[in-house]
Amino acid sequence: MYSIILQAHHWIAFIALALLAYATINGAIGSNSEKVFDDSHRKINLFALITTHTMLLLGIVLLIISPVAQTAFADMGAAMKDGAVRKAVVEHPTMNIIAAVLVTIGNAKSKKAVGNGRKFKVSMIFFGLALLLILSRLPFEKLF
Ligand code: HEM
Ligand code: HEM
């Protein structure tokens, strides 16, 4: 079970990162142009949200069942002193929960914002910030 969830969290990571980057780039290009924020842009934002939420759900399950997390939670003092463990079970989850919240707010705001420019700009800021937070605590060495 653990290995299936870990594999899913590993491979869906690529899709989530790609969609977040796509949504951010769409937003950046759109905010300085006369482009119309159409259904394709709304859907990319929605797919970025769905994959990020899926990562959130898988990540919460990992925090409960991962042997790394279980050992860490058994002795939190020791876990906090070990950089690699602290990153995996504290920094990465905390940062990515914040990122998931930003993605959720960004998706909702991009739908509610008035005017194409505003919709693109909101997408760029919220999805871009979420992507930066995720990248700041991403275990690149495990991903590749
Ligand atoms: C721990 C797991 C999850 C949490 C805490 C969570 C939380 C949320 C929250 C707070 C919202 C915003 C609701 C609103 O607009 O008022 C939301 C919306 C949504 N979530 Fe999740 N979610 C989780 C997992 C998932 C998963 C696994 C999926 C899909 C595979 C998913 C798909 C969606 C979709 C499609 C929306 C609606 C977006 C929209 O309004 O356009 N979520 N979720
Ligand atoms: C889009 C956001 C996220 C991305 C791109 C991401 C990516 C990754 C990657 C690439 C790994 C390494 C997987 C491996 O060892 O093969 C990992 C591990 C982990 N992630 Fe995430 N993650 C995200 C969100 C989250 C969230 C929200 C949580 C918790 C709430 C979480 C909890 C964990 C944990 C606990 C591990 C370590 C599991 C272990 O080694 O046993 N992740 N994540």
UniProtKB/TrEMBL annotation:
- Record-given protein name: Cytochrome B
Superkingdom: Bacteria
- Record field: transmembrane: 6-25, 46-69, 89-108, 120-140
The root-end lineage is: Bacteria, Pseudomonadati, Bacteroidota, Cytophagia, Cytophagales
Alphabetical UniProt keywords? Membrane, Transmembrane, Transmembrane helix
